[in-house]
Amino acid sequence: MRSPAQNAQLALLLEVSGTPKPGNVDRHREYDDLRFEHFVAGAVGSTPGLELAQQGAAVGRAFERGVAGMAEQTAGNTQFGALLLLVPLVRAASSDPGAALTPQAARDVVRATTVEDACDFYRAFEHVDVGVDDPPSDLEALDVRWGARVEPTLRERELTLFDVMELSAGVDGVAREWTQEFSRSFGAADWIEAGDGPVSERAADAFLRLLAEEPDTFVGKRRDRATATEVVERAQDALDGAIDPEELATEFVRRGINPGTTADITAAALFIALERGLSV
Amino acid sequence: MRSPAQNAQLALLLEVSGTPKPGNVDRHREYDDLRFEHFVAGAVGSTPGLELAQQGAAVGRAFERGVAGMAEQTAGNTQFGALLLLVPLVRAASSDPGAALTPQAARDVVRATTVEDACDFYRAFEHVDVGVDDPPSDLEALDVRWGARVEPTLRERELTLFDVMELSAGVDGVAREWTQEFSRSFGAADWIEAGDGPVSERAADAFLRLLAEEPDTFVGKRRDRATATEVVERAQDALDGAIDPEELATEFVRRGINPGTTADITAAALFIALERGLSV
Questions:
Q1: Which residue in A10, A34, A37 has the most chain B C-beta atoms within 10 A of its own C-beta, making it the best mutation to test that interface?
Q2: So what's the ipTM on this one?
Q3: Residues A80, B24: Cα–Cα separation, whole Å
Q4: Residue A40: which domain range?
């Protein structure tokens, strides 16, 4: 059977295969400079990092290696946030191979992260441009765009990777998963497992439900809060049948509204479902 | 950078991502019981076999492991023929990591196969249903549908895997690549490298050129010679602009004409191009 690292890779690939996923690259829609094949190459490239996590390597180190491999394609950042969820989940799934993957196991992994993990996390930003805002003034010294130069501050303040995630949880939906026992990822895994039909269609359905649930923080950062709120409302309209999800997908891609955080959580949900026995 | 095993996996994924590829599963077309996601899971599952080949394991053993992993999805055979090309190519690419991958290196690998490799090859048929015809009466004892039960015959006649491929080269386009220094795979790699634009589009173009070049032996076996000949002519019409490749793709899928051997060679060509430095 597939290993956790293989399931994580498959989750990344199934996530981008699902369609329609309004605003995201999927099997039927792409941006000129961010294409389906870049996500495929990103998933393949990230494997060594996922395998490190499976072998019990530190979360920060495995993440940094995963991002370095992911970035070996011409579009830059494709799955940074997804890897930030998948790496601790792979660690959790590998720590007790016979046991079911639980929110508690995931919580234990992220709470055990260290200052070294935080340093490696910042190092990962040197491989790719990740869309982030200016940090609030009290967090300027921790601006991720400084990459490895933040290391002295992390050591001085004794900040673990979990601490760093807690500081961002208010503005970043991926960080919030770290601090809330991956609750949306596990919830969406339940939806995917309860569905039937092709797995990539179920993933697209889960994506739309997540999108209607709360504002996508990547859209909030790259665009603005009003757009993020509009996305929630339009996704709900699509769920209610008031608008066609295919049309919404085409419109969002045209407008460059790309709900990346929701895609990251969908990938995590797929991984959890696969680990629990979902067959493709 | 990506390892040969990773490039082989990426080749499998880019092959199925290319569209339109008349009659094959691609990013926009699938069969109810043979879907895009089955090919994705097949590519992920085959990785341990590809890694064995990279580590220098025997070709038959690596192939059998690759097929076993590939088959861990619900559609059965997705990339049997592609793996039969990729495994020796990965071996060749790994044997001299600094050197360019050449037809000579591939030839050396397949000519060095043994009776053990032939036994493992037959064992691989136990994992999946592969579409084959009744063999000619003089080859009845070597019918692949007998799987591992053919082993005594292989040992008695001292048939290597290369010998087995030579016996099928007249009726099987994948076996013919083994005996002809992978000439079509290397030729199509040249086309892909010479092109520009998205790699998956170049792969789809290469597929159409291969399809117009000679009858697809999988179509010949699953359907008949007349259909295989028709496919060549229609593919040429599509290349000449007389018909729309998208329409041809839709028509072939509707009629269940699935040129699998041509897809296998396209995957091999993508691998060769990636090994030679093609970037995605």
A1: A37
A2: 0.95
A3: 32
A4: 4-114+172-275
